[in-house]
Amino acid sequence: MSIGNSSEDDRPSIGHALQRARVAAGLTVEEVSSSTRVRIPIVHAIETDDFSRCGGDVYARGHIRMLAGAVRLDPDPLIAQFDAEHGGTPAPTPAAPLFEAERIRSEPRRPNWTAAMVAAIVAVTGFVGFTVFKGDGDSGTANVAEGPDPDKTAPSPSATRPADPKPAPSESAIAAAPRDKVTVKLSATGKSWISAKDHNGRQLFDGLLSKGDSKTFQDKERIDLVLGDAGSIELFVNGKKVDDQFEPGQVERLSYTKGDPEVG
Length: 264
Fold this sequence. Notes:
Layout: H1 6-9, H2 14-24, H3 29-36, H4 40-47, H5 57-70, H6 75-85, H7 95-106, H8 109-138, H9 142-146, H10 150-153, H11 167-180, E1 182-188, E2 192-197, E3 203-209, E4 214-219, E5 222-227, E6 233-237, E7 240-242, E8 252-257
Antiparallel strand pairs: 1-4, 1-6, 2-3, 2-5, 5-8, 6-7
Helix pairs in contact: 2-5, 5-6
C-alpha cells in the first residue's frame, strides 16, 4: 500500500472534473456547448473521458481549455494531466526565427533595385543642378537683376526630388512582399482555439484566441491552419478576405498558398 500516491490516485479524471464543475456552476451541456461552440456530442464524450471524437490530441487540448473556461475551472492542471496521460506536449518551433531567416534571404533583391533607383535619381538631379549652377555663373549678375524667371527657377524644385521618390521604392517593396510569400491573418469574433504550421510542418502557433484578438502568419510557400471554431474567425489571405461561411463550432482544416485564396 502506497500512501504517498493516494492523493494522485484519488484525483478525478479530466472528464469527471469538467462534469462536476459544470454541475456546480448550474450549467447544462447545451449551455456549455453554446458558449464554447463545442458540439454537444463532443462535450458528452469528453465528460466520459472519451477524446476520440476530438480528432486528435491537439484538438482535445483545445476543447479541454475551452470547456474549463466555460465552467470557471483552471485549465492548466487539466491540460497537464492530459499531456501526462497522452505522451506529453509537442514543443512548438518559435515562429520569429523562421520569419527572420526568410526576411534575410528575400531582402537583398529589393534593396538593390531601390538603391539603383535612388542612385539614378541623385545622379540626374546632380547633373541638372551642376548644369544650372554653371549657367548661372556664366551669366554673372544679369540673372539677379532680371528677377525670377520661370526658365531659371524651374530646375530649383528638382533639388528636392531626391527626398520625394524615396518613400515610393519602400512602399512598392512592401507591396511586392506578399507576392513572394503567403500571408494569412486571423481575427477572432468570438473564442476559438487555432493551430498554424508552415510548409515544413513546423508549429507557428497553438493556442486560444479571444474576441478581438488577431494573429498574422507568413511563409514562403504555404500556411496550414486548424480552426477549433471556424465560425468565430475572420480570414484574410494575401490581403483578401475569405468569405466562406463556416458553421459555429465547426472544426476546419485549411491550407493557403501564394495564389488566390482557396480552401485547402
